[in-house]
Amino acid sequence: MKKGKWKFLSLLIVLGLLLSACSSGTSGKKSEGQEGQGSEPELVDPSSFPKTVVNEETEIDGGSLTYALVSDTAFEGILDYAFYESSPDAEVISFFAEPIFAYDANYQITNDGESAAKFEMSEDGKTMTVTIQDGVTWHDGEPLKAEDYAFSFEIIGHPDYTGVRYGDALISGIVGMEDYHNGKADTISGIKILNDKQLTITWEEANPSLLSGIWSYAEPKHHFEGIEIGDLASSDKIHTDLLGFGPFKVTNIVPGESVEYEAYENYYGGAPKLDSVVLKVVSPTTIGEAIKKGDVDIASFPTDQYDKDYVPTNFQYLADMDAAYTYIGFKLGHWDAEAGVAVQDKDTPLQDVKLRQAIGYAMDNKSVAERFYQGLRVPATTLMIPFFADFHNPDIEGYSYNTEKANQLLDEAGYKDVDGDGYREDLEGNEMVFNFASMSGGETAEPLANFYIQNWKDVGIHVQLLEGRLHEMNSFYDRVEGDDEAVDIYQGAWGTGTDPDPYGLWSKLAPYNYPRFVNDKNEELLAAGHSEDAFDQEFRKDIYDQWQQLMVDEAPVIPTLYRYYLMAVNNRVKNYSIEAGSELGWEDVAVTAEKAFVEE
Amino acid sequence: MLKFIIRRFLVMIPQLALLSILIFLLAKAMPGDALTGSMQANPNLDPKVFEELREKLGLNDPWYEQYGRWIGNLFQGELGMSYIHKVDIADLLGDRMANTFWLGLVTLIFTYLIAVPLGVVAGRWNESWADKLIVGYNYVSFAIPLFVFALIMLFIFGFGLHWFPIGGSVDVTVEKGTFAYFLSRIHHLLLPAITAALLSTVGTIQYLRNEIIDTKLKDFVKTARAKGTPEKKVYSRHIFRNSLLPVAAFLGYDIVFIIGGSVFIEQIFSYPGLGQLFISSINQRDFSVVNILVMLFGFLSILGTLISDIILSIVDPRIRID
Amino acid sequence: MSTPIVEKNNISLQQQKTPSGFSVIVREFAKDKLALFSLVLFLGIVLYVYIYSFMLDQEAITRVDLFNIFAEPSSVYWLGTDYGGRDVFGQLIIGARNSLTIGIVITVLTAIIGLVLGLLAGYFGGWVDNVIMRTVDFILVLPTTMIIIVFVVIVPEFNVANFIFIMSIFYWTGKARLIRSKTLAERELDYVSASKTLGTPNWKIMLFQVLPNLSSIIIVNMTLNLAGNIGIETGLTYLGFGLPESTPSLGTLISYSSNPDVMENKWWVWLPAALLILVMMLCINFIGQALKRAADARQRLG
């Protein structure tokens, strides 16, 4: 892929996935006129949606396009890759700034295709030489230089830096970065500027995630001149007075609500086809109408408002898989902050793997996906999402709905309903009730949680909502992260970003291992997965196959759903694509009519 | 008179001080802090980084130290930084304050434009069909939930008829400072303002109506009538003047009321004002902004009641004894 | 929403005499057919809701049924189902019960607090009056909506009881002010000073002489507040700061309309709740108006 809408995903993380899950409307519910009781729903096959807009008309010269930023709050307006924290901001940035490398379909940087810079790896995989291409200029006409790229590392590593990007292994692992970060050195010894256009970066260790995880954004050093790095975050230069080298430049900005962009004629990839783009914030409540009325041309469409019976006449849907999954987790231990390690020591029946497995088999995720989400979500099988096509193992079945098996497992393990209240007691015959924590937000949240509770009740496992209600995001994570004794089972979600390495989520050394699951085999496989051997794709695939199976067998968490996201695009738009590795970027996007089409 | 006003001003000081402590403590008691959200979104990062950041931002100090720092800065005119937006709160409030101010002003104007004539008509011809209609409207506007009404208005006039834009405060493509810019702003705030105004008229209409009906039966009116003053003159000279004056006194209370309603209206119409900022700040745990906003709204409320009290004390001196 | 009304009534009622008595009220209702109809309808709704909701199985109603999502109204589901396949009619009944309970309890609680403090302040005056009225002044100037939202976020376990508690903290002040000003006026009247010279204890004067004279005003004020209190719950729920879904309320049902698809095409989910609120509010208001007229000799119809 060259540049374009995907590039903010190539950042370490899919930001805001969890945030958006708590803003109303984005995480969805199905809205369907159900005909008869119990009838098979007509399913949408999300993979049948195109990823590139279909438009055979001839494009008009220039033209302007309206892009909707779908959000129920104003965008925050931290418009710089090193500082932004929310995905709406990232969308705003993506028009005027872009990574210096091109990405391929596997979200790895590549030298194929047009890009602002090319790279070369050393034999030992520890040093990268980056060469800025000729003709790449910032919007003020200054050429892009090697020092601009180096500068972005200097910002992030700086002791006074107030953003959240430092700490990623591919940034802190650069030779000399630690000293620079602690103020012991004025420069990063591992980054050497060879000349105006070339530099080398050396890491302490080779890392197979390098190609997908490397920090690939340059910062305009001359633009920031005279500003202390500690003051940068609050400076005009990243809020309103913006500078990038992307296909569009910012001409006007109404903070928090809209941005006007104009084509940057000297863009190194050729002048953009559109004259201008207007981006405006539209609330999820009204986006459906806005799209139908042609008020906006391109918008991410809330899946909970998708209606499969509605056939759009003036726009089309694009869909692709999201780099995220939802899961059910079991709290098994606590986090030892001193030692920085998870300890699996909680006194709970859930330590019994058979009980966990039974809970997994009891959940009817197929119905959830089909009925709640009209097929826009699909039952999950393993913790390696299909988004990582190279590593996801489709042969592992995971936990599909099977009450018989769940009952059998429970009977075998000795959980019997002693007092005849419909719920099984624990092995000593005492009542067994689990507290289930789930996040509020998104309309399906509540019925979904209750549906799972009903599922579990069907096999005799007594689960109740923690404190009888859903928890708002902040308090939810306070409790789950803080290993609150009261939480036994929780429903969480992770945005995986574009780096397949699951180490940061599930190793015992990872604070984000919320179940506090500790297992030697798990550690061994996770370590192998990003060792030097893992540069060999076959080896890495094999390791991750084993790991996926292990996590299914051990069931410290049960992945529940993979998700698709939808874009709605007006029929006059041409050359717009959400496909990973697509050659099409914002500079290629064109329109084939003066005005957006309106619903007939 | 002056003494009363000075006394009212002095009362404001402990009120504001108390308000500030209350708000600060409430904000501190909220679960999560400004960094919780970004931690969840950045699983690849070491939580130690966030510990460092908390230390840097002073989030780990005891509350009274944080409060002292905050109030000290406030006195120097420094509102502090937004953790989420990373800008000075003063900058953040700037545009939005203007948005909310204009929305409030226009709402107020519409409220009186609708309420005063209706109240007068209902009062003068009470028990007529017009009165019944107006009283009916009053009941309905009091009973209908604000957001249901707002959503219906948005669907009809925003989407259906396309008369008004569906969000924002101004069209980004219009150049600042031009007449078109001004028009665009008006255009954007018209629908929310009318919607809010239609539901804010209850108090004024009801009051005016009651007052006029009351005054009608008062002795001086009877005397005027007995003297043969034409009915029209009785109303314009005697009744309206007496009934309308107190309405002016409610200006302050109306301001307070409209401020409270802005939280709902701005959220529904995606109108980027202070109310919308409040909701998003609370959801993002941007305490510094929440604190300032509640302070500001509290201050405006105090100011609103102050205005009302002063006008009232002019109109009706009995109140001054209070 | 009720605040401005209370404020304004406060003043208009200030100089009124308060002849009261049950017979006056009965006469007033007999004259005003609309008020009578409202009273009957409202009592009917309340009785129906409270009695019927006890016969309903709440667990069955809140059971998620994936095979009946957004079913249209039918003989099985009188008002169709919501996005969790749950019966809307059952939720409407239980929701109405919860919303009514909330509204009534808040009204009664705030009335009691306002009455006690208002009586004390008005009757004794002096420092008692000062302390109480400064507190009232302070609470009155708080940006109530915002502070309530902050409270809701803080409270760990958010249920009906907590909700009522939070609301009650803020909504007693108007009443206290009203009662105080009326008591002030009553205190100056001859019957009080007469009792005092006779050596009747203060509490007796307050309870048996002053209070009955205030009763009609209290009732008028309470009916109007009841309507307002039901409305507040709805608004907060819409913003996402209301009761959890496991506690159905009219606000929960109406707030589903924030999804445009529901608003346009699934009317059965939110419209009945909205109409029910509208009808109840109208009833309460008509009843309140009649009571008010009964309390105010000059406006009486009969």
Automatic annotation (TrEMBL), chain A:
Native source species: Perspicuibacillus lycopersici
Protein name: Oligopeptide ABC transporter substrate-binding protein
Organism taxonomic ancestry: Bacteria, Bacillati, Bacillota, Bacilli, Bacillales
A GO biological process held by the record: peptide transport
CDD domains: PBP2_Lactococcal_OppA_like
Signal peptide interval: 1-26
Region (Disordered): 27-48
UniProt entry keywords in alphabetical sequence: Signal, Transport
Example of a GO MF term: peptide transmembrane transporter activity
InterPro entries: Opp4A, Peptide/Ni-bd, SBP_5, SBP_5_dom
PROSITE patterns, per the entry: PROKAR_LIPOPROTEIN
Automatic annotation (TrEMBL), chain B:
A GO CC term attached to the entry: plasma membrane
Matching NCBIfam families: Opp4B (NF045472)
Any one biological process term the GO annotation gives: transmembrane transport
Keywords tagged on the record: Cell membrane, Membrane, Transmembrane, Transmembrane helix, Transport
InterPro entries, per database record: BPD_transp_1_N, MetI-like, MetI-like_sf
UniProt signal peptide: none
Main location: membrane
Ranges where the ABC transmembrane type-1 domain occurs: 97-308
Topology relative to the membrane: Multi-pass membrane protein
SUPFAM superfamilies reported in the protein's UniProt record: MetI-like
Sequence intervals crossing the membrane: 101-121, 142-166, 186-208, 244-269, 289-315
Protein name, as recorded: ABC transporter permease
Family per similarity comment: Belongs to the binding-protein-dependent transport system permease family.
Subcellular localization: Cell membrane
Sections of the chain in a coiled coil: none
Automatic annotation (TrEMBL), chain C:
Membrane topology field: Multi-pass membrane protein
Location in or out of the cell: Cell membrane
GO BP terms, alphabetized: transmembrane transport
One Pfam short name: BPD_transp_1
Transmembrane segments: 34-55, 100-124, 136-154, 205-224, 267-288
Origin superkingdom: Bacteria
Gene3D superfamilies found in the cross-reference section: MetI-like
Domain ABC transmembrane type-1 span(s) in chain numbering: 96-288
Coiled-coil portions: none
GO cellular component: plasma membrane
Keyword list, A-Z: Cell membrane, Membrane, Transmembrane, Transmembrane helix, Transport
Family classification: Belongs to the binding-protein-dependent transport system permease family.
Protein name (database record): ABC transporter permease
Organism: Perspicuibacillus lycopersici
